[in-house]
Specification:
globular; 11 helices; three-stranded antiparallel sheet; 10 strands; five-stranded antiparallel sheet; 2 domains; alpha+beta; Aminoglycoside 3'-phosphotransferase, Chain: A, domain 2
């Protein structure tokens, strides 16, 4: 298969057995075609951690096939999609968690929220999308918590012998302190998307729909961090990033009725955690340096 170099690098650097999985990928796709009587088409989607391609069922229904190295995150995505059952989120048609396979409804026209040029409007749409996904947790579930994710900051310290390596010590210290304080005073936890931003909100015949939920347990104020860091391809070219970030926080606070300062603090802590994840996954320094820039902005926003 003629796979994008960035995709192969991400899979091999992120997942144990990633190189072997890539070798087996053509066989896995063929197995999916036989099992579900579908035809996989050449992909025209941007690939990151999973292989995603359009496909057609035997009756002509257009779907999306998503396959990835089997891991906890894919399993919790499947669990979240089953709970959402198509309400505000793309519908899961079938899945095999052990094989890392998801069959998803195809959204049309399927354009990302990045197509909107009015940032205020996009922020409001994202806020409304968030609200549709904040579900009461079932009695039994396998979702990680925000506290589990926050443990990554301890791993950062351990990786650098108690220091912060290439990351600004002031920001890491602030993030650790914020995680501790915010977790201790959190509101009632709900099911969050966990990575809700412009690239994961698509247009459809039923309005804007969300894709790729991580599925994480935490208070709603935690959810906005990913949105503030995106769209990563353009937001950091804005001459007044501080002003835009402040305006977004204003809109989110008004639309969601959530304390603005609490969202700012969570977003700062989450930005530093995101930087560590990028570094840990072998990401380019140019990517996490941009995110650290936003962390500094969030430190200064009033």
């Amino acid at each position: 298969m003629n796979l994008p170099p960035h995709f192969t690098k991400t899979v091999t650097s992120t997942f144990t057995g990633g190189a072997e999985w890539l070798t087996h990928l053509p066989n896995l796709l063929a197995e999916c075609e036989r099992r579900w009587d579908l035809t996989v088409q050449p992909t025209n989607f941007t690939l990151s951690y999973n292989y995603v391609a359009p496909a057609t069922l035997a009756d002509g229904t257009e779907i999306v096939l998503k396959v990835g190295v089997p891991n906890r995150e894919l399993r919790t995505e499947i669990e979240a999609l089953r709970l959402y059952a198509g309400r505000g989120c793309v519908r899961l048609l079938d899945a095999d968690p052990e094989q890392g396979v998801l069959l998803l409804a195809r959204l049309h026209p399927g354009e990302m929220l990045t197509t909107l040029t009015d940032d205020d409007e996009a922020t409001r749409i994202a806020a409304l999308a968030m609200q549709t996904l904040w579900w009461q947790l079932p009695a039994e579930h396998n979702f990680p918590s925000v506290a589990d994710w926050g443990d990554g900051l301890a791993e950062l310290r351990e990786a650098f012998g108690g220091g912060t390596g290439p990351f600004e010590g002031r920001l890491v210290d602030t993030a650790v302190s914020l995680f501790t304080d915010l977790l201790a005073s959190s509101d009632e936890p709900v099911l969050l998307h966990g990575d809700l931003h412009h690239y994961n909100i698509l247009s459809s015949s039923d309005g804007w729909q969300v894709i790729d939920p991580k599925g994480v347990v935490g208070e709603p104020a935690y959810e906005v961090g990913a949105l503030l860091r995106n769209p990563i391809a353009t937001i950091f070219d804005e001459p007044d990033l501080k002003g835009i970030t402040a305006r977004r926080l204003d809109i989110l606070a008004e639309t969601l009725s959530i304390d603005r300062e609490r969202m700012r603090q969570w977003s700062l802590a989450q930005a530093v955690l995101s930087v560590w994840w990028s570094y840990e996954d072998g990401g380019d320094s140019a990517d996490w340096e941009l995110t650290m820039r936003l962390a500094n902005v969030l430190l200064e926003v009033s």
